[in-house]
């Protein structure tokens, strides 16, 4: 069994980005720019935003951090995002979710032009992914694809099963695997026989949000198992896969923490660099 080391791959991606951002700056006389908007004081969001800004600094990306109070009005947030949309130094815009309840998330996200949608959440970017056209893809599923690539796991012709169909993980994950020529099954809470579906997978991706939900009896011998889940149990991070038992059957497996998690920010930075390159092309 090979343990897929997300920390190492993430560090490799970031180091490569540093070279790319330096080359961009030399060629175009400005840095790749990423704007991060945080509304309110949610402690988890504050940590995510801090990590994203630190990631930018390390990768040679100029970050534009904007903090609005929790009682910011809809028009205040929309005006800020629209101003960032018009700023040529900003190549990507990220609005940290969730937003305070009184705000209309959809309307605010609609102020981000597709070209600056670093999260790949817009309908146009999802449509492009569905049509296998170039665009920005959500960070977590593209992080999974990067892990597979770096470990030379080619999905072509393989049977891939994705458990979870959320817009930010499961759905784009399934489309990416399909675009990589896997034969893809998407499972969810209404799937009739989840165990039978999972047991067929050469590549099994769990994005459910339930600790240790995927057990060894659901996994084929030699399967590649990717655990996207992040659950907090008794103060510890636990994935959606019963790592201890499943790792005895898997050929490759991602740990939690240290697997998919570290890839998300690396892919966000990679998306920002790709947006900047497209903007000058
Ligand atoms: P989500 O929006 O809650 O979606 C969960 C999915 O799992 C849904 O499609 C749901 O089916 C399915 N599901 C729930 N119970 C199930 C069951 N008993 N059998 C089969 N399917 C079931 O969650 P998410 O945002 O996709 O996140 C999934 C997990 O990934 C969470 O643990 C989250 O913390 C983690 N995550 C990690 C990262 C990272 O950076 N590594 C990023 C994002 C998310 P229905 O659609 O039928 O309800």
Topology:
Blueprint: E1 2-3, H1 6-28, E2 33-39, H2 43-59, E3 62-68, H3 74-86, E4 92-95, H4 105-109, H5 123-130, H6 139-150, E5 159-163, H7 170-179, E6 183-187, H8 194-198, E7 203-206, E8 224-227, E9 231-233, E10 236-238, H9 243-246, E11 252-253, H10 261-280
Parallel strand pairs: 1-11, 2-3, 2-4, 5-6, 5-7, 7-8, 8-11
Antiparallel strand pairs: 9-10
Helix pairs in contact: 1-10, 2-10, 6-7, 6-10
Q: Which strand order spans the largest sheet, edge to edge or round the barrel?
A: 1-11-8-7-5-6
Show unreliable segments.
Answer: none
- Mean pLDDT over all positions: 98
Helix-residue proportion: 40-55%
Bound molecules: NADP nicotinamide-adenine-dinucleotide phosphate
The span between the termini is 43 Å
Largest sheet: 6 strands, parallel
Radius of gyration, in angstroms, nearest whole number: 19 Å
Class from helix and strand fractions: alpha/beta
Tell me the total number of β-strands: 11
Sketch the topology as an H/E string, one letter per element: EHEHEHEHHHEHEHEEEEHEH
Count of helical regions: 10
From the spread of the alpha carbons, the general shape counts as: globular
Strand fraction:
15-25%
Tell me what you see in this structure.
The protein has ten helices and eleven strands. The chain has 281 residues and is an alpha/beta fold. Helix 6 packs across helix 7 (170-179) and helix 6 (139-150) packs across helix 10. It is globular. The model has no long low-confidence stretch (mean pLDDT 98). Residues 140, 163-166, 168-170, 187-191, 194, 207-210, 228-231, 260-261, 264 line the site of NADP nicotinamide-adenine-dinucleotide phosphate. NADP nicotinamide-adenine-dinucleotide phosphate (NAP) binds next to helix 10.
């Amino acid at each position: 069994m090979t343990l897929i080391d997300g920390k190492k791959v993430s560090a490799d991606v970031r180091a490569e980005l540093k070279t790319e951002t330096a080359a961009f700056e030399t060629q175009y006389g400005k840095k790749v720019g990423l704007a991060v908007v945080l509304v309110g004081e949610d402690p988890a969001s504050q940590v995510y935003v801090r990590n994203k800004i630190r990631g930018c600094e390390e990768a040679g990306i100029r970050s534009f951090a904007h903090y609005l109070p929790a009682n910011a009005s809809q028009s205040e947030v929309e005006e800020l995002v629209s101003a960032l949309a018009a700023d040529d130094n900003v190549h990507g815009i990220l609005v940290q979710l969730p937003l305070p309840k009184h705000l209309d998330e959809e309307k605010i996200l609609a102020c981000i032009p597709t070209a600056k949608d670093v999260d790949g959440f817009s309908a146009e970017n999802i449509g492009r992914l569905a049509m296998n056209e170039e665009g920005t893809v959500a960070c977590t599923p593209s992080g999974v694809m990067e892990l597979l690539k770096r470990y030379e796991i080619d999905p072509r012709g393989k049977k891939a099963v994705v458990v979870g169909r959320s817009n930010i993980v499961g759905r784009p994950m399934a489309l990416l695997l399909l675009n990589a020529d896997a034969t893809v099954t998407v499972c969810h809470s209404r799937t009739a026989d989840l165990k039978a579906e999972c047991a067929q997978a050469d590549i099994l991706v769990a994005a459910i949000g339930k600790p240790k939900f995927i057990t060894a009896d659901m996994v084929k011998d030699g399967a590649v198992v990717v655990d996207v889940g992040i659950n907090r149990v008794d103060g510890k991070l636990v994935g959606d896969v019963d790592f201890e038992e499943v790792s005895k059957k898997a050929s490759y497996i991602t740990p939690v923490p240290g697997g998919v998690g570290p890839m998300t920010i690396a892919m966000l930075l990679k998306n920002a660099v790709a947006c900047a390159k497209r903007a000058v092309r």
